[in-house]
Amino acid sequence: MQEKAIMIDRKDNVATALIQLGKGDSIPVGLEGRNVTVVLLQDIAFGHKFALTDIQQGEAVIKYGEPIGLATKPIRQGEHVHVHNVESQKGRGDKG
Amino acid sequence: MKFLGYRRSNGKVGIRNHVLIFPTIVCASEVARMISNEVPGTVYAIHGCGCGHVGEDKEQVTRTMVGFTGHPNVAGVLLVGLGCEVITPEVIAGELAKVGQRVETISVQEAGGTIKCVEAGRRLAGKLLAEAASAKREPVDVSELILGLECGGSDAFSGLTANPALGIASDLLIAEGGSAILSETTEMLGTEQVLGKRAANAEVKKRIYEIIANAEAKAKSMGVDIRGAQPSPGNIAGGLTSIEEKSLGCIRKGGSTTVMEVVKYAEQPTKKGLIIMDGTGLDVMNNTGLLASGAHLIVFTTGRGTPVGTPIAPVIKVSTNSITYNKMKDNIDINAGVIVDGQGTLRSVGEQIFNEVVEVASGKLTKAEILGHHEFDIHSLGPVV
User: Fold this and answer.
1) Each residue's pLDDT tens digit, B67-101
2) Which of A68, B53, B56, B169 is the most exposed place for a label (fewest CB within 10 A)?
3) Which residues span the domain enclosing B108?
């Protein structure tokens, strides 16, 4: 069976869509005994991420078990996670 | 395990048998191209460097030219100069003599202009071609192979399919005693804690943290937000949110073995196994650095699709998803998208990549070679004065 989305590490709080997913879809994601079913709040394009759990503003977004940036606003479970609500912490010359 | 390679008189092993026409200065680049066009069977590589370099920049550009033109995939090289540049054919030829590379030199001013230089260049290139023709492939152990690892036009699948599959191929080659070079330092930002844990010793660990910190400091020193270029607009459209995310996917090309050594851009390693080269995020420049560091061939993973090759070494393209593969089949050798389609596994694609590396090393042509792709550029540190 083809999976619809993948969690790469058990510590991750986001999953990646493996196919085009639609708003309202119920997506099961599992890895090594951690199983979550997420109802999507938005359409998610293939390759894009959605939140597996609620993420607080300022909290790290975790993929591959490592931080990939901080949430710039509260993110709800099932919401699209991308540049509009996550900020990289690397190479930020603009922050002085 | 064996492949069929060319054993050079200096002991090095090549997997191609090119005669290269190489300008040491941008001003001689058209003349170099004209010579190559008039002598079928030769290849050329043109670039924007060769003059105005000082200090560390001069060292890096010189090291790159020496490593590239002295590469064992090159049976012989004709260096073309202008006559008044900083990096003359004689400077490079002097270094090549030390490593036993077959080299001829010519310069536009001394030859008396374009037409005379092309005429003289044709004769020299013909002589080099005739000599190269006597080289024969022979069985060589795969432990002598050095694989360059590259990714470009990344998407969110790069870190899920093609890069971890390439990581398995790297592990397989290293298990056979060979080497793989991981690079693209900008795309290591945010992974120092992961790579540092895999360092062979404290010195290697220190160097890993150092080169990543330098890459970040360089980005910061411009006073801008690196997000303007990293991830690139195409990366973002593909679902990559931050440089950290791109990096964590990028480094999976290096597999799971110990990092044995960290080298500079275009510097040749002294150790075998997994090597990190302090390279750049721009693919074509980084490919040159990988080859100058000794890589015989490159496996290049791509999410969005890219056509690039190199003038002297094969590039095997691996797509991260089936949509890109079907759209750009003419350019892509292997589709790792089968992993998400349920038609293959990381292990099966990893083994497929490894087998392809051995076959291509033995002479099988890649799509980039068949299409005649030979993009080339040198990573100059500047500022050029």
Assistant:
1) 999 999 999 999 999 999 999 999 999 999 999 99
2) B56
3) 18-134
SS3 state at B44: strand
Contacts of B215 in chain A (CB under 8 A): 91
Is the CB of A16 less than 8 angstroms away from the CB of B239?
yes
Domain boundary residue among B111, B134, B157?
A: B134
Q: According to CATH, what is the number of the domain A5-90?
A: 2.30.130.110
Please give the Cα distance from B340 to A6 (Å, whole number). 10
Chain A neighbors of B155, CB-CB under 8 A: 47
Other Cβ atoms within 10 Å of B100 Cβ, number: 13
**Pairs of residues, one from chain A and one from chain B, whose beta carbons lie less than 8 Å apart:** 106
Confidence of residue A32 (pLDDT cuts 50, 70, 90): confident
Chain B residues with CB within 8 Å of chain A CB: 155-157, 159-160, 189-191, 193-194, 215-216, 219-227, 230, 236, 238-239, 241-245, 248-249, 303, 321, 340-342
Which of B260, B262, B263 is closest to B273 using CA atoms?
B260
